[in-house]
Each structure stands twice: as C-alpha cells, then as structure tokens.
Specification:
Length: about 240
C-alpha cells in the first residue's frame, strides 16, 4: 500500500503542476484574508472565521485537481494492468492512492498555520479562541478527507482526467452544500429540512468548527469516506 502511496506522491511532485496547485491554494487564501476588501485586518478583532469559511470552496477546486489523475491516468496509459500484477489487493491499491492524495492536501494545509500565529502576534487582546481554531482545523481535515475520497472515486469512473475533475467538483459541491440548499426549499419546511441538512457535509463541518468534536460528526465523515472508497473498489473490480 505504501509503495502505491509513495508512487502517487512522486508522480504529483515530479512536475510543476503539483507545486502550482499548492501555491495557488495558499495565494488565494492569503489574498482573500489579508489583501482584498473585508479582510481579517479590517475586522478589528482576532478571528480566522473567514479562512474556515473560504477554505472549503477553494478545496472544491484544489482536491479534484490533485485526485483527477489518480486512476484516470492509470487507465489511459495502461499502467493499471501493470499495477495489478503487483502483490497488492484492490483495497491496498485504493488506500495507497487515497492516502497519497490526502498527504498532498495536508502538505498544502500545513502552511496555513502561519495565519494562526500571525493573527496571534497582531492581536492586542487575548487573541484567537484556540479551542475553536483547533476544532475548525479538525473539521477542515475531515472535509479534505471526504473530498479526497470523492475525487478518487470520480477518477475510477473514467480514463479522462478532465472528466474526473468535473465529476469530482460536482459531487463535492453536492455533498458539501447541495443538501443544505435543498433543505431551504419551502416544500421541506418542518422536520424534513433538518434531516436533509444533516445529510450534507456543511452541517457536520460547521458543528466541528464550533470547537466541539461530536461522535456523530466523526461517524458521518468516516461513513462517507468508506462509502466512496467502497465504490472505488467496486469500479476496480469491474475492470
């Protein structure tokens, strides 16, 4: 499994594409937080709420760009057949690809800790709420893990990386905000809107971001990850 993971990491960082994706992610967040209108410095108090609201939407483009070639490129070039000759089970291949892509996302996320220390140094009062910030980062990690699973799954449906990219964006957007948007419709007012919203990722992400790590949220995230990885495994079996 780890051999596949290392291969995925080498493949991603062997070209400028990997570095450009990470740089663009950090640049967009940095400009939105510190340069453009309504930035953090204009708030008058220490907060990273804007970053945690913005990061999921940037992830909608970053993570599909990272995962789109995972299986699609293997199918297109015919190297998937070579990969199958190795003493690896399908699950080991899936998990290798998954963790390889997830590590890249974590590498992109680590430099954002600079935002935390910068705001702490600039604040005149008590600074940031450390507990809420840690909870938000945990939520962001689980969100990245789910989006990565969706991206890997999308890549296993096709041998075209562009199609995998589009499928991944559509699926991630649906699971992140789609159910919350549907729950706002008047037809679902009452109890139905609450349960519809619970199906979406945004509901559980906001729950963890408050600084309280609820078991129900963890079970939800893990269940969605397992679901999409199981679909990926099924797609490999069909091939």
């Amino acid at each position: 499994m780890w051999s596949v993971c290392k291969k995925e990491l080498r493949q991603f960082f062997s070209s400028l594409t990997g570095y450009i994706a990470i740089i663009v992610f950090l640049l967009v967040n940095g400009l939105m937080l510190f340069v453009f209108d309504n930035n953090i410095l204009d708030f008058g108090y220490a907060t990273l709420d804007r970053f945690f609201q913005l990061a999921p939407w940037v992830f909608l483009l970053l993570i599909p760009a990272i995962t789109m070639r995972s299986f699609a490129e293997e199918f297109k070039t015919g190297t998937f057949e070579i990969l199958q000759t190795r003493p690896l089970s399908r699950w080991q291949i899936v998990f290798g690809k998954y963790f390889g892509s997830l590590i890249v996302v974590i590498i992109a996320l680590l430099p954002t800790l600079i935002y935390y220390f910068t705001i702490q140094k600039l604040s005149a009062g008590e600074g940031l709420d450390t507990g809420a910030t840690i909870g938000s980062y945990i939520g962001l990690l689980f969100l990245a893990a789910v989006f990565t699973a969706v991206g890997i799954c999308s890549s296993s449906f096709t041998n075209n990386a562009v199609i995998a990219f589009i499928l991944s964006i559509a699926a991630c957007a649906l699971f992140y905000y789609g159910f919350s948007a549907i729950s706002l419709l008047p037809a679902f007012s009452g109890n139905a809107d609450y349960y519809l919203e619970m199906i979406g990722i945004d509901f559980h992400y906001r729950s963890i971001s408050r600084g309280v790590v609820d078991t129900r949220d963890l079970v939800y995230f893990l269940s969605v990850i397992v679901l999409f990885l199981a679909i990926t495994n099924r797609n490999l079996l069909r091939r």
